Amino acid sequence: MAYYKLGVIESRFADIIWDNEPISTAKLVELCLKELNWKRTTTYTVLKRLCDRGIFQTVDSTVTSLVSRDDFTSSQSELFIDESFGGSLPAFLAAFTKNKKLSKEEISEIRKMISEYDAH
Q1: Among 17, 77, 92, 104, which one is most buried in terms of CB atoms within 10 A?
Q2: In degrees rounded to 5, what are phi and psi of residue 96?
C-alpha cells in the first residue's frame, strides 16, 4: 500500500471531503470557507495537490475519494511506526503503554486481534 503523508490542515481538508462525499466543488469551496476560512483558490490548490497524490479525484465538478479514510489512517499509522520505531509494533506498544495503563477491555481486544491474525 502507498503511504500518504498529510499535514494537519490537509488532514482537516481531507476529513471535510470524506465526511461529505460525493461533494460538488462548489459545496467544498463553501464548506472550506466556513470551516477553514479558505478562499476558493486555496481550496482548489489543496484539492489539486491531493488529487495529484491519488487520494481524491474530481470528475465533472464532483469530488470523491480514491483512498478511504480507513485505508488512509492505516497507512498513516504504518508510516508513523516505521519512522518512529523502526517498523517494530512491539517497540511501539512498549512505548505507548509505558505511561498509560491498558484497560482490561483494551487488553482483551489486543489479544483477540493477535488470535485472529495468528489464525490467518
Answers
A1: 17
A2: -65, -40
